[in-house]
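Can you give me the bound-state structure? Components:
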Amino acid sequence: MYPSRFRYEAPRSLDEAVALLAGAGDDAKVLAGGQSLIPLMKLRFAAPGLLVDINNIPGLDYHREDADGTLRIGALARHADLERSDILRARQPTMAQASAVIADPIVRNRGTLVGSLCHADPQGDWASVVTALGGQVVARGPGGQRTIPMTDFVLGPFQNALGPAEVAVEAVIPAPRGARSGGYLKLERRVGDFATVGVAVAIETTGEMVTRAGIALTGVGGATINAAQAASALVGKPLTGQTIARAADLAAQEARPRTDHRGSAEYKRHMVRTFVVRILARSQGGDTGERAA
Amino acid sequence: MTIVYDDLGDEATEQVPTRRIAFTINGRKKIAEVEPRLLLAHLIRRGLGLTGTHMGCDTTNCGACTVLVDGRPVKSCTMLAVQVDGRAVATVESLAGPSELHPLQEGFRAEHGLQCGFCTPGMMMAASALLAENPSPTEDEVRWALSGNLCRCTGYQNIVKSVLWAAEKLRSASAG
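Here's the bound-state model for the whole set.
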């Protein structure tokens, strides 16, 4: 299969990339890892007139922690970089777990976290993870830079909040205010399949109390679902069998699954509940992910 | 090399814009004029005549087209040929010359790691990247590294054994 014909540009700077996009109206696409975009173009679901390949722009393949604990992931940080990351393994249990279950190991060598967020696939794992962590996307456009909360970034299936001349340059995960725990669990029929159900949980605790909670769901709705009610049911309370069960029930209610070849809606809802309980039960046991380091 | 693209009949081919790329394939420097939409797999198979790289699913699932770009395994059906400008590509042909076998190839023979053989080049390239990074993988690590490569014949058991066989052979070769 071949994509439709397109003009190809490989700029060496972000300013150049933005200028190219600005000159193309809404007929351009940014190419980062290409593991979603190239298949879409081969199937002719996408047929941009201009492809702006950002892979030759230096300085975008980082992920790093600021002094205050804020985590920044550049637009060219590959899933495989994150899977091998000591920073994630030590301090980002939700991200560390997700990084190992994105697509398959070969796809992970090319695909990027920021690209996955932009693709806004309802079955994309990273959008749930970044939503649960209260993250943001930094976009660069002709008017400068702006920061978009993840909850505002995904507008619908395959729709993001970027303007036609904007490039997503970075994902930002705010520093935790307490001890961080959580995880990402994904049900898939085989490695590389889209999620039947994915659940991202990120909580912060001070002493016994949950001070911040985020829960987001993959594959059980028309877009990434921010299970805000489930998350807020945990805040200000300790993790107990009761609070965990309550959050899991709420998350299951917030899911909007549909019956398809991957399973019935009832089954998927059940798995949302099960995964929330599993992740939180581990957090309750004091597992902050640090033992894996 | 010559311009490589398919005449799909939807436009006069002489008007098709191409880009010049310079890259290495299996250690040899090449220059190619390619249409931007040409896939890396097609450049390798049709442009360079290296048919060891197989096109299986053409949908980023099966991994038969796996090659190394700058040492990392990628699915060459899901990368544009223009993107290897300035980069190093290695295909299954790089493992050993025509009259010799790489330990991975020996391993696949010794452990009966292939039946129809279609997925084998991709399996070997994924395995070669694993062994370059981790010369003593566990069985689980081999299964992890090959989990992006599908085989419809073997049930994978013998493929895993083949890679472990090759790892052993490579270790004893470097020790000896």
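A couple of observations. The domain at 7-52 of chain A is CATH 3.30.43.10 (Uridine Diphospho-n-acetylenolpyruvylglucosamine Reductase; domain 2). Chain A has three domains: 7-52, 63-173, 179-285.
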